Predict the structure.
Amino acid sequence: MKHICMIWSDTTFNMWEGFVTSVVYKNPNLENKIFVRFVYLHQLLDKKTYIELLAHLSYIMNLKLSEESLRTMITDSDAQMIKVWINTFKNIDQQLCFIHFCKNIKDKMKY
């Protein structure tokens, strides 16, 4: 039976003059355990920064194409990050985080 490894990525705002993007994952073989995979400190939220960030992550993960298909990436709604993610990891599914999705709807309804 194939196990899918869920990977979450999120950028934290308002911590300092820059940003912290963290990537955590849940190993399907270890119940209720979440591990930090990668932490990246950066000052910009641009395409170049995301390309660099995901290039480092790709190097660390060192996945074969067959292994990528067993992963799912959950992100917030940062369109720039999603575009770079899809170009860097072509075989890893990308999904929008349900909590961020609900928050985005709630924020839009305020106006």
Observations:
- The beta strands are 5-12, 19-26, 34-42, 71-75, 93-96.
